[in-house]
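Lab notebook, bench 4. Continuing the backlog of folding jobs that were queued last week. Each job is logged with the same field layout so the records can be merged later without manual cleanup. Today's entry covers RNA polymerase sigma-70 factor, a 193-residue chain. Filled in by technician R.K.

JOB TYPE: sequence-to-structure
TARGET: RNA polymerase sigma-70 factor
LENGTH: 193
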Amino acid sequence: MNNTAQIKDLFYLVMQDDEAAYKTLFIKLHKPLCQFAYGILKSQQDAQDVVSDVFITIWEKRNQLTDVSSPLAYCYTAVKNRSLNILKQQKRQKELDNSEWLVPQNSVYFNPENLMMTEEIIQQIRLTIQNLPSRCRLIFKLTKDDGLKYREVADLLNISVKTVEAQMAIAMRRLVKCMPFNLTTQTTKSVKK
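JOB STATUS: finished
OUTPUT FIELD FOLLOWS
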């Protein structure tokens, strides 16, 4: 079961008053949502407060969330909206372009065991991802690390799906360039699919 399907199942169980599922959902989403909130707020404490508030609201309104089709996108959108409200309340709101949001890159999309990569190649991939333009890096993280669909990322960042596709194409081209010759052929084929 992939991560998105598991989150959807847990969310459904939460709507059925399952406290164990709620705790599991919280543990599974806390870190990526805190990183996302931190990218907007630039404050670790505020980010943790926002994520905690979102989860409290999910539990309190669990019976009203039956129409949520994508729980992961719902959580990210709730964190984004609450974070932006915090900025307004603190009167720190300035013209904030989402390409400036700092979102740390924790993992590499590729599985080193499956691709039999050396640590050197993994470091090269991390460096390549870190050197992506900020908006491109954010979109890459949301789609590849967090499992959001292109439409969900577009809605979250108030951009078009075509922009998401274009940014992902840039990211994938740069990742392909950093691969050694024997992996470049395999990766190029998988990117075209």
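OBSERVATION: The domain at 3-89 is CATH 1.10.1740.10 (Rna Polymerase Sigma Factor; Chain: A).
SIGNED: R.K.
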